[in-house]
Design goal:
Elements lengths: L1 H8 L1 H28 L3 H11 L10 H18 L6 H6 L2 H24 L4 H12 L3 H10 L6 H30 L3 H11 L3 H9 L3 H16 L1 H18 L13 H14 L5 H25 L2 H4 L4 H25 L1
Helix pairs in contact: 2-3, 2-4, 2-15, 3-15, 4-8, 4-14, 4-15, 6-7, 6-17, 7-8, 7-9, 7-17, 8-9, 8-13, 9-10, 9-11, 9-17, 10-11, 10-12, 10-17, 11-12
GO cellular component, one term: plasma membrane
Family: Belongs to the UPF0324 family.
Keywords: Cell membrane, Membrane, Transmembrane, Transmembrane helix
Length: 340
């Protein structure tokens, strides 16, 4: 164990990672600039810029660092998401929104896995897209991808999911405020609907506060509750990975942990954050570090992917993700009168 750890942090190892890590950091900074000035999701910009720099991941000095960002840095970013949530925030919502999120998440992911199989894909692809739709967009897609078993097409599926969920989230941010006004929802109900249906946190905040402060506050809290659901869904993905490892006869090697280390880190940080002892400045720093880790990892994933592979996914995955989004919004509207 000690020897392995020493190898990982040795100066030679750091020198090998440096070019690729710097390349991902530069792409992340460029994506952050574009997102700040042009409004589109930063993760989407990081993905597109990474795809444009795919040549760096071929045999060369940048490859080890790009692999490191696409895997290790991703896990750190997911773990730090725990600093966004406290148990008191969840309790303040009451049982209605909690049941709404639990029911909609379970049904959306379950239906996605069933439909994915009917369309000729693995059920795990439905878990990936359904989890991204039902939980927290691109961040959930990256977290679930890290927990799912290895597969030759996993990175392509992850990239497609990130692109699809980012595009649909941006559309929802613009369209859903008009929907709630058309339906005549009061500010709190409007916030619950927006928080329970829009994919990414940033788009939820943008849509909610564009209506009113009360709507924005309600939308943000419900969205954070959905983010908290990331842990049990990661546990589900890790359990599937563990079962597959055992079924494939890999008992000669170490079995994957029931709960990945980054998921444990996520849970620990939620617990620590819930004590109220974490200063606001530290929470903000952790959230910012999480965001940049996810952006850098998205850049690395983009660099590793051949664009020609991405454009061959066909129409079925697109229909799957659009269907998941429509189902989630419709189900939420049907459940709200009964649970609120």
């Amino acid at each position: 164990m000690t020897a392995t750890l020493t190898t990982r942090i040795s100066p030679a190892r750091l020198r090998g990672l440096f070019p690729g890590v710097i390349a991902c950091a530069v792409v992340a900074a460029a994506a952050g600039f574009l997102g700040e000035h042009y409004g589109a999701p930063v993760l989407l910009y990081a993905l597109l810029l990474g795809l444009a720099m795919n040549f760096l991941s071929e045999q060369g000095p940048c490859r080890p660092g790009i692999e490191f960002c696409a895997k290790a840095v991703l896990r750190v970013g997911v773990a730090l998401l725990g600093l966004r949530i406290t148990l008191s925030q969840v309790a303040a919502l009451g049982w209605g929104p909690v049941l709404l999120v639990l029911i909609s998440l379970t049904l959306t992911i379950g239906l996605s896995m069933w439909v994915a199989k009917r369309l000729g894909f693995q059920a795990l692809f439905g878990l990936l897209t359904g989890g991204a739709t039902a939980i927290c967009g691109a961040s959930a897609a990256l977290a679930l991808s890290a927990a799912l078993p290895p597969h030759p097409l996993k990175e392509r599926a992850t990239l497609f999911t990130v692109i699809g969920v980012s595009a649909l989230s941006t559309f929802a941010m613009v369209a859903y405020p008009m929907v709630v006004k058309l339906l005549g929802l009061d500010p709190r109900s409007a916030g619950i609907f927006l928080g329970a249906t829009i994919h990414d946190v940033a788009q939820v905040v943008g849509a909610g506060y564009s209506i009113s402060t009360e709507t924005g506050d309600a939308a943000t809290l419900v969205k954070l509750l959905r983010v908290a659901m990331l842990l049990p869904v990661i546990l589900l993905a890790a359990s599937i990975t563990r079962a597959r490892s055992a079924a494939e006869g890999s008992s000669t090697g170490p079995r994957p942990p029931l709960l990945p280390g980054f998921a444990v880190g996520f849970a620990v940080l939620v617990a620590i954050n819930s004590t109220g002892w974490v200063p606001h400045a530290l929470q903000s720093a952790g959230n910012e570090a999480s965001r940049w880790c996810l952006v850098a990892s998205m850049a690395g994933i983009g660099m590793k992917t051949q664009l020609k592979e991405l454009v061959t996914v066909g129409l079925k995955p697109v229909l799957l993700m659009v269907g998941e989004t429509v189902f989630l919004a419709t189900l939420t509207l049907l459940l709200m009168p009964r649970l609120m």
